[in-house]
Amino acid sequence: MRILITGGASGLGEAVTKALAANRDHEVHFTYFRSKQQAANLEQEHSNVKAVHCDFTSDESVTALLKQMEELKPEVLINNALSGVSISHFHKADSTNFLSSFQANVLPVIRVSQKAVEIFRKAKFGKMVTILSSAIINKPPIGWSGYVAEKNYLLSLSKSIATENASFNITSNCVSPGFMLTDLNIEMDERLVDDMKLKHPLKKLLTIHETAESVLFLVGANQQINGTNIVINSAADLA
Fold it and tell me: What pairs with residue 52 in β-bridges?
């Protein structure tokens, strides 16, 4: 199966890339931006993995990726890339930051997803998996209003894609993981992390590998599973 994962060189993306590459029948392509060495390591470790450089904040770079997709003809698209997060209380945030963040984190997903659907429709088959966050279901973290709003937008978009393309044998599903330690929150105070572990019913935080298992499930699932959102939180952060 030909698979394209955006942002597949580090964090959760790397875990997903490795999990998919473990199946030798998979041809896994992933995008990366700054993680050049990690991308090279993945290519060296797995003969069925290919790195594609893409800057999601650049229209030209995204356009180049769309052209490569025409040649690759992926059967699966995993939307995972995140260009960055601006953390600020809503009432203090500059309204222009919402626009720039949307342009960097949502519009590229729209463009890549549209190209994937175009390819899927011609093949009468395709699977799309979009990585979201359990914060869209549960109590959102303070200062992350822009991020949560964007993930909610992508959830609604994914459901629309599922509805519009089901008759073409195309599925669109989501995975919404709870808090994980990744590069996105690497500077978080260790005391807060320890407190979160103590309050967690399993006394441990969700890992990127556990989340990758859910992505792997949706990639291998039958086409009857469509329009779903798998929330992974162990009921630890329900509000």
Answer: 31
